[in-house]
Predict the structure.
Amino acid sequence: MRNKYNIKDGSKVFLLALFLPQVISILLVTILSCFFTAEQLQNSNAYIVAMMLVTQFSFFLIFVFYNKYRSIDCVKECGLKTKVSAKNVLLAILISFIAVAGFINFVGVFAKLVGLMGFKEGGRSIPINTPAWLIVNVVITAIIPAFFEEIIFRGMIFNGLKKCGLFVAVALSSVFFMIEHLSFYSFVYPLIMGVVFCLIYHKTKSIAYTMITHFCNNFLVILIDYFNEITGNDFGMFNITTWWGVVLAVLAAILAFVIIFFIVKKLMVCQSCDNSENEKTDAEDVVVIEDSNEKSEFASKEASQDDKRNKYFLLLTSLASFAFWLIVIILVK
């Protein structure tokens, strides 16, 4: 059983994660439109919940069938078997608090700018004005995404793209994470958090901590939305309509990122890292070549050519997905 993702795996998984939800959504809408009018569907909270779950269901299908088809030991590759450190858990929770506190106003600044450009927050969301709806929101937008989005974007995509180098892997997987949300109104937050999740995963070699951070982050945002809804206030927001409010928002975001980077770099630990296995370089992970003197040179050339083809495929994937993102946000506008 193969237990490593490569560049092509990362590219293919992202394309599936981007387009499969769209296909399933179209099929679902087509079926439901046979029984309900467009107005009935748009005003139905059950319909909105179903559409929100389509993406996560698609990720579940990709996670199960892609790994089975490619014979990849996803549990081992994603670090799901590693021991969980109480220290790392607490730090992951702390990072989520710092991220929400530090980035919320910065994201608000960009949302204002995007709003001035004529873009609006797309789609109708489910209510969040009662404890029951609060629980529904937590399950749909915090618990489920924390597992499946991390498995897909950090466990499979980021792992595969690491063969391009750490910087490229972090940048591209974070951009892919932003594109997958198909929103121009709030594109900054998934982009920044994508970088944070990658840093945590790279340092700890365990996806459990990114799942914890992801859940706590989404949960805190949901709580803020809930209290804003029931009180009518903008909890935790500066007055970003003034120049000094914008400056404070930018400074808070920079400070938050610096603190998060320090916590990940200096305080988080990798329990699975031992002297024999975790000092491997990225080059050692590219291809496993059989110990045959006659075939080693040929195999090396083949591996180099495959690697080049995979990088071209990644480039085409990046350009096509970005073009699709632009088309969607222009149409939504």
